[in-house]
Amino acid sequence: QVQLVESGGGLVQAGGSLRLSCAASGSIFSINAMGWYRQAPGKQRELVATITSGGFTNYADSVKGRFTISSDNAKNTVYLQMNSLKQEDTAVYYCNLEGLRYGSRTDYWGKGTLVTVSS
Predict the structure, then answer these.
(1) Which of 103-108's residues contact partners 24+ apart within 8 Å by CB, and which partners?
(2) Is the pLDDT of residue 82 over 80?
(3) Separation between Cα atoms, residue 62 and residue 107, nearest integer Å
(4) In angstroms, what CA-CA distances link 22 with 1, 65, 94, 119?
(5) Is the pLDDT of residue 26 over 90?
(6) Distance between CA atoms of 33 and 25, rounded to whole angstroms?
(7) Which DSSP state fits 112?
(8) By three-state DSSP, how is residue 79 classified?
(9) CB 38 within 8 Å of CB 18
(10) 66: which of 21, 37, 82, 108 lies 20 to 30 Å off by Cα?
(11) Going by C-beta distance under 8 Å and a sequence separation of 6 or more, which residues neighbour residue 99?
């Protein structure tokens, strides 16, 4: 009974900014990390950024320096601030949660939010 709800996607012009958010709810014993992945049309899903419950962050090389991931552990919410957006960033962005359920590591996924970057 874990749910992830994403918001903040939309249409933005190249060079612009957008902020995504994802709120997790449900019976989660422990959250190890939350993050963002994306999938462009005709391409495989790829990692964008992750953040552990301890605050350690990891970014894909393609977004490092432009995107910033942050979290509010008290609210079980993760954010992705996207600046200097490029057309290549156009994709469906999915929220991911890595947690423990009944002692096992489990991944949960949101339904995705579309980000479209125009020229």
Answers:
(1) 105/32, 108/2, 108/4, 108/24
(2) yes
(3) 24
(4) 16, 21, 9, 27
(5) no
(6) 14
(7) -
(8) strand
(9) no
(10) 108
(11) 2, 28, 29, 30, 31, 32, 105, 106, 108
Q: Which amino acid is at 40?
A: A
If you search the block for the tokens 């996607």, which residue do you land on?
9
pLDDT at 20: 98
**Percentage of residues of the chain with pLDDT beyond 70:** 100
Residue type, 83: N
Residue the block writes with tokens 């994403």: 6
Length of the chain: 119
> What's the token pair of residue 8?
């903040």
Going through the chain in order, the beta strands assigned E by DSSP cover 2-7, 10-13, 18-26, 30-39, 46-52, 57-59, 67-72, 77-82, 91-101, 104-109, 113-118
Tokens of 42: 């005709």
pLDDT tens-place string over residues 32-81: 999 999 999 999 999 999 999 999 999 999 999 999 999 998 889 999 99
